[in-house]
Design goal:
The chain is an alpha/beta fold. It is built from seven helices and ten strands. The chain has one domain (about 5-210): P-loop containing nucleotide triphosphate hydrolases (Rossmann fold). A hairpin with a 2-residue loop joins strand 4 and strand 5.
Length: about 210
């Protein structure tokens, strides 16, 4: 079975300890991360999304410890960080196809999938417009859409519904739950209360620790 395991993970930024000896095994389904601002939720997602490396401890994907297993993980990873610099001179579609190429996806299939995802979340009419013209909410939807390309077996989503109206946020929630039926989805969201009944687990990040609350 697909699994992501954290064993004794710690992370510091200078003198500040953000995560300390975190261990948890993630399996297919939706895992919600909750906790106060600055508790380390985004740091944990960056580690899961391979954007950063832990100071101590081991992250394993399907039984293979990173960094050795990093290449296999990245081929099936969808990562949507809360803050990301997008290429302003590209259209949304060009950006998505660039991400698809990095993942080794078939361009035609990825283009078709990107069209379906953006249609579902109300962005399809703008996919041939340059990202420079996009509002904050449009950028958020684009980052979410690229994360879903290739039907990843691991999704790490940091506040994907921020800056979105309630109806659009619910549309994203529907796609997230569809992917969670087959994949490991780890996310933070202001819709945690609405999604909690559908979650496999709800984990609270506080004082550098990870505690299961549901």
């Amino acid at each position: 079975m697909t699994s992501l395991e954290l064993s004794g993970i710690s992370k510091r930024y200078g003198a500040k300890s953000v995560l300390a000896d975190v261990s948890h095994r993630f399996e297919p389904g939706l895992t919600l991360l909750t906790g106060p601002s600055g508790a380390g939720k985004s740091t944990l997602l960056r580690l899961i999304g391979t954007a950063e490396k832990p100071g101590k401890g081991v992250i394993s994907w399907d039984g293979a410890a990173l960094p050795g297993g990093r290449a296999a993980l990245r081929r099936t990873l969808g990562y949507a960080p809360q803050a990301v610099e997008l290429p302003e001179d590209l259209t949304a579609r060009e950006f998505a196809l660039h991400i698809a190429a990095l993942k080794g996806l078939d361009a035609k299939a990825a283009d078709t999938q990107f069209g379906a995802i953006t249609d579902a979340i109300g962005l399809h009419a703008d996919i041939n417009n340059r990202i420079a013209s996009f509002s904050g909410g449009m950028r958020r939807r684009l980052v979410f859409a690229q994360a879903l390309l290739g039907q990843p077996r691991l999704l790490a989503l940091d506040e994907p519904t921020a800056e979105l109206d309630r109806e659009t946020a619910r549309k994203l929630g529907t796609l997230i739950l569809q992917r969670a039926s087959e994949a490991i989805v780890v996310m933070t969201t202001h819709l945690a209360d609405e999604l909690a009944p559908h979650a496999t687990a709800v984990l609270r990040v506080e004082n550098g620790a990870l505690v299961r609350t549901a």
